[in-house]
From TrEMBL:
Keyword Transport included in the entry's annotation: yes
Keywords carried by this UniProt record: ATP-binding, Nucleotide-binding, Transport
Gene Ontology MF, one: ATP hydrolysis activity
Entry's family note: Belongs to the ABC transporter superfamily.
Keyword Transport applies: yes
Gene source species: Paractinoplanes ferrugineus
Gene3D superfamilies: P-loop containing nucleotide triphosphate hydrolases
Domain of life: Bacteria
SMART domains: AAA (SM00382)
Pfam families: ABC_tran
Domain ABC transporter: 5-230
UniProt name for this protein: ABC transporter ATP-binding protein
SUPFAM superfamilies: P-loop containing nucleoside triphosphate hydrolases (SSF52540)
Length: 302
């Protein structure tokens, strides 16, 4: 069975505000998909509709072809963390997870397994009231993992994590996708998303702005660049001048940064012009710049 997420013409109208506006996108399994948008873009509302917590005004959202509310065993199919987890202040992390296990018909031993998975074993017997924000995030992820789900949906999971915690989460989510699972994660940390996500879905003001593999989205905006080192920069610049839409920017370190074409075309132009190359590398563009270009004027509170 497919574990793809499909959002199909989803709309949510709150009185005068259209929080989500005819939004369609899909999320594939075996990949980490970043769900990006400025504040108030409708990300949380979309995730809440996907999880059956908010009723759409129009459209559908399905996971593996079924609505969340129709899944026969949701905790084993989908794990979700919508906000830093809350638990009873006086309850330990382990007991919090064991209570969820019992409600879901899972063995108690699963609580310790997921505590280990999120690195909380040393804090298993500590009370929730003493948890830091980062520990709460880890506990939320642990709870989402209890049913060993095929699909993981996380809203801003990096909030409150320190750099080591962010690194840990990146590895965890990548490993999860590498096992063939589906990972949808919303974030406004664009640098982090560039490192983590295979695909991105960019929304603003409730509407889809762009979706696709990160490299394609960067490439389509001319954000990808080629870095070259050559002892003959003038000759290479002349050779590249004949190519449409290509710009060459000399860098302070003596290299050339070329936009508007790929490494193969630059290598070919150099070869044809008998220009010696000492370095030829594709440089990924900057997701933050592309995001700002794509959502220009659409940010802000509505
Ligand atoms: N229950 C509600 N009633 C009225 N308006 C709402 C409700 N829930 C959300 N909204 C509004 O819908 C819009 C989208 O909110 P949402 O939380 O989905 O955005 P977001 O992309 O998750 O933003 P952020 O990154 O700031 O969390 C906002 O303007 C918000 O104020």
């Amino acid at each position: 069975m497919s574990d793809d997420i499909v959002v199909d013409h989803l709309t949510k109208q709150y009185k005068k505000l259209r929080a989500v506006d005819d939004l369609s996108f899909s999320v594939r399994s075996s990949r980490v998909t970043g769900f990006l948008g400025p504040n108030g873009a409708g990300k949380t509302t979309t995730l809440r509709m996907l999880l059956g917590l908010v009723t759409p005004t129009a459209g559908n959202a399905t996971i593996g072809g079924q609505k969340y509310t129709e899944l026969p065993d949701p905790i084993r199919h989908v794990g979700a963390v919508l906000e830093a987890s809350s638990a009873h202040r006086g309850r330990t992390g382990r007991n919090h997870l064991r209570m969820i296990c019992r409600a879901a018909g899972l063995p108690d031993s699963r609580a310790d397994e997921v505590l280990a998975l999120v690195g909380l074993t040393p804090a298993a017997n500590r009370k929730f009231k003493g948890f830091s924000l980062g520990m709460k995030q880890r506990l939320g992820i642990a709870a989402a993992m209890l049913g060993d789900p095929r699909v993981l949906i996380l809203d801003e999971p990096a909030n409150g994590l320190d750099p080591e915690g962010i690194h840990w989460m990146r590895d965890l989510l990548k490993a999860f996708a590498a096992e063939g699972r589906t990972v949808l994660v919303s974030s406004h940390l664009l640098g982090e998303m560039q490192l983590l996500a295979d695909d991105v879905v960019i929304v603003a003001a409730g509407k889809l702005i762009r979706q696709g593999p990160v490299d394609e989205v960067l490439g389509s905006m001319g954000a990808a660049q080629v870095k070259v080192r050559t002892p003959q920069p003038a000759e290479l610049t002349t050779a590249l001048a004949s190519l449409d839409g290509v710009t060459v920017a000399p860098q302070a370190d003596g290299s050339l940064l070329i936009s508007g074409t790929g490494a193969a075309a630059v290598g070919h132009a150099a070869f044809t012009a008998s220009v010696e190359l000492h370095e030829l590398a594709s440089e990924r563009g900057d997701l933050e710049q592309v995001f700002l270009q794509l959502t220009a004027g659409m940010a802000g509170i509505r």
